[in-house]
Amino acid sequence: MGGRSARHPLDATARADAIPTRPGQAALLESTPPSATHRASRHDAQRHATPDSERAAAVSPAVEVHAVGGPILVWDLGRPRRVISSAPMGGGLVSAAWVVNGQVPSDWSGRDPVIELSRRAQEQGLEGPGVGLMTAAKVADVATAEVGGVRVDATVGLGQPELASPSRLAVRDHSPAGEMRRPGTINIVAQVPSSLTDAALVNLVATATEAKAQALVEIGSGGTGTATDAVVVTAARPGRVDAAETSSAERLYGGPRSAWGEPLATAVHEAVVAGGRRDLAGRARLTLVMGGARSGKSALAERWAAAVAVDGLVTYVATAQRPSAAADADFAARIAAHRRRRPSSWVTSEPSPEELAAVVATTEGPLLVDSLGTWMARLADPATAIDGLVSALQSRAGPTFVVSDEVGLGVHPPTDIGRRFRDGLGRANEAIAAVADRVVLVVAGRPLDLPHLP
Predict the structure, then answer these.
(1) What single string gives the DSSP state of each residue in 379-418?
(2) CA–CA gap between residue 83 and residue 51 (Å, rounded)
(3) At what angle do helices 382-395 and 416-435 cross, to 10 degrees?
(4) What does the pLDDT read at residue 437?
(5) Average pLDDT over the chain, rounded to whole?
(6) How crowded is residue 367: how many other Cβ atoms within 10 Å of its Cβ?
(7) CB atoms within 10 A of CB 289
(8) In whole angstroms, how far apart are CA 60 and each of 88, 191, 332?
(9) Which of 227, 73, 232 lies closest to 158, judged by CA?
(10) What's this model's pTM, rounded to 2 decimal places?
């Protein structure tokens, strides 16, 4: 199915699981919180001074799920606009009448994305100059946010998050030999309804990138982006705005506190958080969070688990045996505090030490285990239990967070039972770290990513 009549415009208020029944019906879009939609900013009065002839309405993308070349998002801008992008087709500072974001298989081996995207744009009946993006992430899962007149659409795939500077801290890919990596690209299309100088457009690309990195840090992705991310920013009119001919500050600047930079940064952040949460919730990813007593490790793991919750649901596996207040008032109070701060939508499981591996292996969706220290203290056969837990963690299909105590930095335990506990927990931490996608040491509430072994 192809052509303009088959497209379904995506609306920022559409449900993510909506199925279109006719052209024009909202479909397949991550919902934007009502409080974030069309949020006014402190720069509204300045923007209202812009003549209507210099403004352009935001365009909702249409999704062609059954296009000949594969699913594709289409932004038909109606008339050419000034566009800056890092796209493989039509990149740079150009005049463009449309933008497309084409989905390709994760094993796509085409050598020339320009030829592929040009062909698919022609199939959609698009004419004139345009900009083409490509991704292996599902374009139907596009996330949208609209703030202060700026609209942002983002397709988010976090199969291979990276840090910008080459580092051993980068997240590893655990795909078996010969298996393709999971899709990993973040494509951002932002529409600003005002004409802007080229310098302001360049600044907006930097602002969008900063907001994207902030969002990825907040959801615990372990990276600041992927190696193939792209940004597109459109302005209102196609021609170049000469800075010497305008005195309007809103057209001159694009930083995160400028008239258009602030709503753009907010919208990018919201769209990437929404898209990133949904993407991470569908990935089998293991994060080991270690730290000393009162280091903040549990609170951090809870925050990251909440970020990838599916409909607010996370399964919290508590490994401690709840004592009575009379037996251990301090420990009972700590457990009660943990329970109070967990969302009411979470499900709590309290298996015996011998049942932990089975619970981990059979539970669906996001899972948080807290903690290995109290689990180890109750084990009769640590060696066998560790092997079983590692196997269970590797078999999971959803995101998993394991909290553990780092007890090897203190003095040598004076008792035999203390030494056996320290050594057993150390072996458990090392075994799980060896299969984890991310290992974090928490000190004073601050996470420190630990490098992977070469």
Answers:
(1) -S-HHHHHHHHHHHHHH-SS-EEEEEE--TTSPPPSSHHH
(2) 20
(3) 20
(4) 87
(5) 83
(6) 22
(7) 30
(8) 22, 10, 53
(9) 227
(10) 0.69
Q: How far is CA 441 from CA 122, 178, 198, 438, in A?
A: 51, 32, 43, 10
pLDDT digits (tens, 9 = 90+) for 321-375: 876 666 778 878 888 888 888 899 999 999 999 999 999 999 999 999 999 999 9
Q: How far apart are CA 154 and CA 142, in angstroms?
A: 6
What are the structure tokens assigned to 124, written together? 């959609």
371 preceded by cis ω (within 30°)?
A: yes
| Mean pLDDT within 50-57 | 65
β-pair type (62-64, 438-443): unpaired
Distance between CA 295 and CA 447 in Å, rounded? Answer: 10
Is the model more confident about 440 or about 324? 440
Place of tokens 């094993």: 107
Whole-angstrom Cα distance, residue 100 to residue 108?
18
Q: What is the DSSP letter of 273?
A: H
Helix axes 297-307, 261-281, angle to 10 degrees: 90
Could you read off the pLDDT of 149-185 as tens digits, one per residue? 999 999 999 888 888 886 544 444 444 333 334 558 9
Residues 6+ apart with CB under 8 A from 288: 402, 404, 429, 432, 433, 436, 438, 439, 440
Number of other residues whose CB lies within 10 A of the CB of residue 24: 12
Which residues carry out catalysis?
338
Residue 157: closest CA among 297, 15, 279: 279
Name the one residue in this structure whose structure tokens are 């360049």: 202
| The two structure tokens encoding residue 337 | 């505090």
DSSP string across 141-164: G-EEEEETTEEEEEEE--SS-B-S
DSSP 9: E
Q: Are strands 62-64 and 150-156 parallel, antiparallel or unpaired?
A: unpaired
Retrieve residue 309's tokens.
């919750």
Buried b / exposed e across 332-352, counting CB within 10 Å, b at 16+? eeebeebeeebeeebeebebe
CA distances from residue 131 to 76, 89, 153, 170, 227 in whole angstroms, order as listed:
11, 6, 15, 30, 20
CA gap 368, 400 in Å, rounded: 6
User: Of 143, 178, 158, nearest to 29 (Cα)?
Assistant: 143
Read off the pLDDT of residues 298-335 as tens digits, 9 standing for 90 and up: 999 999 899 888 788 999 999 998 766 667 788 788 88
- Write down the H helix ranges in 42-96: 44-47
Question: Among residues 83, 89, 64, which one has the least CA distance to residue 201?
Answer: 83
